Amino acid sequence: MKWLSLLVGSILIGLIFFMINSKSSSSEPIDKEEMTPTLFIHGYKGGPRSFQTMIDRMQSLEWGKKQMVIYVASDGDLTIQGGIQQSRTPFIQVLFENNRASINSQTHWLEGIMQRLKYDYEIQQVNIIGHSMGGLISANYLLNAQEFTAPKVEKLAVIASPFKGISKEGYFKSNYGEATTDLQPKSEALVQMIEKKNQFPPHVDVLAIAGIINKEAPEQLHWDGLVHASSVKGLQDIVPFGQYQEEMVYNKQASHSGLHELAEVDLLLGKFLWEQQN
């Protein structure tokens, strides 16, 4: 009985040490070089709800977790809620108080965000998802970025972003703000982006997603109810050959504000950004 008690005791001690070691190894710190946060940047007139449901769906699929919200005041000051914890794919939601500001203003604010992420949180690289104008400012940022002062952008995904402007009749009569100047076809801001195409970083992979609610219409009329697919495809005039890919989503629900609510779009982003297959 004495030897049996010693044997059982030894086994229990061994199990305890095994569990302790397993727990400590699973909680080992993740190197910053292994961490790639994804920034979610809303478009013109966007806000907290613009990307929240997409983030919720991606969290339920365990593709990442929302850890930080960055609020950008109209004067560019940043208020950061949350922090970067141990995770390879943390999510960061970016919210602009002035959601009607110009492309240049929002690009400048994005530069400030990137610098804070690098110097305060030691983030080395990021991915970006931008909806509509959020995609425009993300691309414009890349055309002007000084990467030695900011994290390296690995991948950029844009959703319904009008790189050739918005041509919907009457749209600019019912909307206002500096952005409405930049969002018009052949605006100075959009033309400058094409003129700077040689400055686009050679390492950034890009995905453009367009919604088409009227599949039966002639191709030149395909649109999401606001932005034509040809305008979204305008990004290929900026991105170097071999770095650009596009996806057209044919669905009556793929409207300009509904496109990022579709599970199909989630899957396209998951595959592109994180090589998710489910």
UniProtKB/TrEMBL annotation:
Q: Which domain of life is it from?
A: Bacteria
Among Pfam families, the record links this protein to: DUF915 (PF06028)
What InterPro entries would the database entry show? AB_hydrolase_fold, DUF915_hydro-like
Please report the name of this protein according to its UniProt entry. Alpha/beta hydrolase
Q: Which organism is it from?
A: Halobacillus litoralis
